[in-house]
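Hey, quick one: can you model this chain's 3D structure?
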Amino acid sequence: MPRLVQVKDLMLGINKINTLQDLESFLWWLYSFCLLGINTRDILNIDESCIVSDKSLDHYHPEAKFIPFWKDYERKAHVHIRRGKTKNPIVMLVNLFPTLVIRDWLHYIVGHTRPDLVYKGKDRFRIFNFKTLTKTGKPDEEGIKKQIKLLDTFADKQKKMFGGTTALTRQTVTTTGARIGISSDELKRQLGHKVKGAFAHYIVTEQVPKDVNHINIINEFGIIQILLTLMDSFDEIQKLDSNGDLIFTENGPMLEKSERTETLDSKEVPFNLDPFYFLAKIPAPSIPIDSKTGEFKDLKSGYNPVGEMLLRTDLTIWSRTDETRYQQLMEDLSKNSFKVVNGKVVEVVPSEATYPDELKELKAKKEAMYEELNKKILKSFLKAHPLILETQKEIKNRIAPNKVLNQAKKQLGILSDSKD
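Sure thing. Here's the predicted structure for all 420 residues.
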């Protein structure tokens, strides 16, 4: 019997990914959770035309405002759809990190598992080339048949890997929300259900607390950590010698591919493509160490924004109350952030000098929290990857003789200060 999925189920389920379709099914569950468990039928109909307000096609991270080099990830994109048979309206974030990371990986895998069904256009949010609704909003019977067949495959594989299915994702979302104190009525509104006495259409100002709830549900369940673990399971492994020590080359530690296989015709064979393809499009967290100096890089350096987002694992570091108030104040500020330039109305970024005192205090509060957090993140990263310290030691040992030699050359006048 399918049941509610726990984090432990998903983590251990990673070990049971034996085919690309297994990976596809696993990613689909994560994607559904990131969209708060809306029906697969609804997900299949999402495209750029459903996006309201900001038309951002990139990731949105709620902490982007506080981290240098993350400015491209401040913009929200909300999708507006009507849920399944009830036709109740629902507005939710569709680009909250790591939703689009999962979508991009999933789209790539579908291109190999179902080349006849993969979407090949330019729409940022499409994955499959069919929908379950026609342009007039009527059921598309052919699309529904494909959806049912797809879900049957997903359900079978999901039950084998972690005991639950996409059909129960919404209940997992609801349980997670209740655990962090979101009321029953709030959760119903969050998922597009009618609440007794509530308006049929929700006013815009209610979207901020709904966004904050969405952020905290994803954060509480630990979706980023699950995704990071899944990525690590396909990553290259640092090769060890017979004594268990790292093997180094001039370019750093020697790496080898993990021995991941898939089952084809009842035989175990290597995966027929590299499922970790997406280093180019979705950079994995690289080791935060400078290969020239052996020193750890500042996590705020901007060397890999998406990788840093994965490395941090948390979407927010303060309470729902503070996050809601901060976003409300920023939204209020944005209402007066327009001016006419050459006869056209344009949006301008408000100067921090114009921030109300309450907003300045909230901003200062979070900035102080980040100073301490950056130290904890590096410590946590080193604990999870202890061999990095050996890498650092090897780099510094290699650099040290050159420093001594350069100092000697400088004293003899062979090397100028400008080259040191």
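One thing worth noting: The CA atoms of residues 288 and 309 lie 13 Å apart.
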